[in-house]
User: Fold this.
Amino acid sequence: QSVLTQPPSVSAAPGQKVTISCSGSSSNMRSNYVSWYQQVPGAAPRLLIYDDDKRPSGIPDRFSGSKSGTSATLAITGLQTGDEADYYCGTWDASLSVGVFGGGTKLTVL
Amino acid sequence: EVQLVESGGASLQSGRSLRISCEVSGFTFDKFAMHWVRQAPGKGLEWVSGISWKNTLGYADSVKGRFTISRDNAKNSLFLQMNSLRPEDTGLYYCAKDRYPIVSVPDAWGQGTLVTVSS
Assistant:
């Protein structure tokens, strides 16, 4: 059971928008920044979003992050078949003094 | 370019010990915290351990007392000593760089090294 809760799967058609939620608690999500990662099958995770809503260089602006209270959201617009992957949220839990991840969300582009 | 290259993964029996390593390049190693994150076959990401630039350590409850993280700044290397290994420790172990000096969450990731523990 993951500390952060994500939906197991989401799907949408090419060109559409999809959002992936990540729910935590006051000891992790509310008090620390959230990051989002993309993991294509057979590859290592890649950072998409850090500090709740910032994109590393090289990440297209189709990917955006937001956070409110104990919940965060990753939004992907203009979906492409190449976006099919597992997506994870992650943060630090100050109460447990451990890093925590969501269980992952599998994105299918129909 | 940031690069992290893990090594030392192996197949071994329950109860044995193993040390895995990560050699990094492309950034000032001693200025950043580092992590080990593992992924069991077909499962999600699990944070294992982190070490700050000042050697403050953190461990997941599942490995506390069995695993030890360390770093050698002179060699730009991160290590994970794993003792009393269990079948549930099986997985791909990723070395990851933090964005900050204190332990928060991973930034860049290596390709992983596979540890398989049989009963």
In short: Chain B has a mean pLDDT of 97.
